[in-house]
Amino acid sequence: MIPVIAIASMAIAATAGQLAIPALAIGALGAALCTAVRAFAGNSLAASIAAGAAALLGVLGLLDTSGFSVARAAFAGAAAIFAISELARLTPVKSPYPAIGAAVLAAILDPSFVGLTAIAGARFVVGPWPRPRWAAVAAPGLGVAAFVLAVIAALAHHGVLSTLWIAWTGGPPHPDAPSHVMLVIGDALGPLTAIAALSGLAVCASRGRTAAAAVLVIALGALAVALHDGKLVPAALVTAALAAGVGVGRLAATVRWPAGQTLVGATASFMLLVAPALGLIKR
């Protein structure tokens, strides 16, 4: 499923007129979303369908929304979602470094994901892995420093830090009423995706403290940046796609009959994808 989704995502991006690098980034995002949803929802056929739908939902969402660099947004989202999938499946015999590296890359590309560095660093410290003594301070300290820098840069109105924030987010902020920003996010997601995403966030919150914290921190980070800049941010679309996929997977799992699970998962996935697919076709 994961290679198929990656190829399909790149094909959709190419059809939408994206060049090689953005198409590659979109493929990476699709693969990461598919992997992460399976980490939360399991390996059943219904979960695989939900994972594929989540990947395509995130891909279509980014391609259907203007105002930011597709390549940068997709690479940032792919790194963040990969970090979450690694944290969700982390075991004492599995290296924590891929999760840390992916979290750092995501934070460099998008301030919405800075909280992931703190979560990955904290998990590294409390885990049973061998590590040098300095790493016990450096790993979580890096996450805290990144978070503080993001907050200070967001609050700066001029100078170097203000320039840093504009470069970090890809554009200057446009202050707007929080209610209007929430309406913009809601319109971009649609009612079905919003409901599935909310239920998916609840499911993620019940799947271990580390995984729950990782998902919630990117959701809050995306919301904070969106409210500060007064616009829809790519992290909101990526996070919603992940949560919606998990929500659909959980909905399908409530059906005990295996064929019924597949039917429910396929039907719900189709309903989620209709609106964004039609929106991209119209563009």
Outline, from the CA principal axes? globular
Largest sheet: none
Q: What is the number of domains?
A: 1
Task: Give the count of helical stretches.
Answer: 13
| Number of strand elements | 0
N→C terminal distance? 28 Å
Helix percentage: over 70%
Strand content: under 5%
Name the helix and strand elements from N-terminus to C-terminus, one letter apiece.
Answer: HHHHHHHHHHHHH
Please give the radius of gyration in angstroms. Answer: 18 Å
Estimate the mean pLDDT confidence: 87
What structural class is derived from the secondary structure elements? mainly alpha
Low-pLDDT sequence parts: none
Topology:
Elements: H1 2-15, H2 20-41, H3 45-63, H4 70-88, H5 97-109, H6 114-126, H7 133-155, H8 160-169, H9 178-189, H10 191-205, H11 209-229, H12 234-253, H13 258-282
Describe this structure in words.
The mean pLDDT is 87. This protein has 13 helices and no strands. α3 (45-63) runs antiparallel to α12, α4 (70-88) runs antiparallel to α5 and α5 (97-109) packs antiparallel against α6 (114-126). It has helices at 2-15, 20-41, 45-63, 70-88, 97-109, 114-126, 133-155, 160-169, 178-189, 191-205, 209-229, 234-253, 258-282. The longest helix is centred in the C-terminal third of the chain and has 25 residues, at 258-282. The two termini are 28 Å apart. It has one domain.
